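Could you help me review a protein record that somebody else here produced? Do not assume that whoever made the record got everything right. The record follows directly below this note.
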Amino acid sequence: MPTRRKVNSVRVVLLAVVCILIIAGLAGVFVVKKGLSSTGNGDKNIVFTIESGDALDQVVENLENENLISNATVTKLYAKASHNTNFVAGTFELNNGMSVKEILSYIQDSTKLKKDALILKVPEGKWAKEIAAEISNLYDGKFSSEEILNQWNDISYIQKLAKDYSFINVDDLNNSNYKVKLEGYLFPDTYYLGKEDSIDEITRIMLDRFEVMYKENKELFSKSHYSVQQVISLASVVQFEASSKEDMEMIAGIFHNRLEQGMKLQSSVTVCYALYDDFKDPKDCETNPEIDSPYNTYLHEGLPIGPILNPGDDAIKAVLAPKKTDYLFFAADIYNKLDGKVHYSKTYEEHQQICEKLGLNL
């Protein structure tokens, strides 16, 4: 016969198990409820596109990337349970005040399609002036490139933007030597614009996308000893120098090493931007290392004074979390004499030997 002490122990264990199950159940209910709620208060409209053939997983991933949902797993489960999986391909205008239920219902309704969307494609590495020209062409000259660039250079306009975007620091951008003050913040992506959109609305759509990236990497930005402007400046150089994610991480690490050791970056791509209107051929960047410009990292120590293009996600993340190595030099096999790869070295002597093999002039 079990003793009273053993019976009491069993009761305590059972009670503990019941309590745990109740707590777990309540926690689960909280997670589900939060996961089905809106991510904001409806203050941000987001143009959202479903490509033909996009399945549930892809649509949900894209919704999460746009910060329109907070829990992909809960959203998928709800979509399957409620049979909300037959989405319409096309472009919709959603906002961050919509619940998961409202979003899923909305993107299944073909009458909600944004039929007058203009598609603006901004690849990684584009200059602001190139983006301005593309916008001008897209709107059939409704805005001139000069008009767009003037707004992107207007410090009073940037002061207004700074009130809505925490990553914009007016003091950092208020530099008369900048080619374009918003260079670096026009985030690469495919945008679906309205025919009646203003320059301000178009600009904010790109800045909204930058903000998504910024929030996703907020912890890394806060841990960096560089300001946002400096991170984007270095990322723009990395973007110009490398084509793969792996090389971006390696080259970002090398630039960090050089900066920490007080070496000049000596990146020829900064010469490309220094040439600006006179830039015609990449070879010009190699043959003009003495051009007088605050962007030129052959003449000036540290980072260029500002971004030299608009970098993408991989380049920015590479600067925030670079590959740690002992390398100080790199050379890309642009003529494909060896293997087409980027070659790394720890000493200048090794670097010289590699460049000779690749047919590169130092």
User: Anything to note?
Assistant: The chain has 16 helices and six strands. The chain has three domains: 45-112, 118-216, 225-358. The chain has a mean pLDDT of 88. Strands lie at 45-50, 90-95, 118-122, 189-193, 329-332, 342-345.
